[in-house]
Amino acid sequence: MSSMANGDDPSVQESVEQALAGAQNQPIEIKAAAVAGAAAGAAIPSPTPQTASQLWLALVITLCVILVVDLGGIIYALAEKKNTDVLFGIFTTVLSGLLGLFVRPPAQGGQ
Prior knowledge:
Blueprint (H helix, E strand, L loop, with lengths): L11 H11 L5 H16 L5 H31 L5 H16 L11
Helix pairs in contact: 1-2, 3-4
């Protein structure tokens, strides 16, 4: 009985077999990539909800720290009349990434 029948994630062997079956009429390069992806995906377990929450929190805190430090750098550079182009680029990129974590994709009916 396969582990898929129990509702669990498939084993590495089952994932590789499914990838090979799905890529049977493809060139060897495609088969190799499909097998590598399937094996890696099955070998790495999904994080527990607690671990996922910790990773999410670490990501958000890191982006916030970068945002605050960069804002301080922009203020300092403006006071010293220095070029702020790179700092603004970093600021807008980090701000966009941070906002993107909390905005629903339009495909999910983001209201």
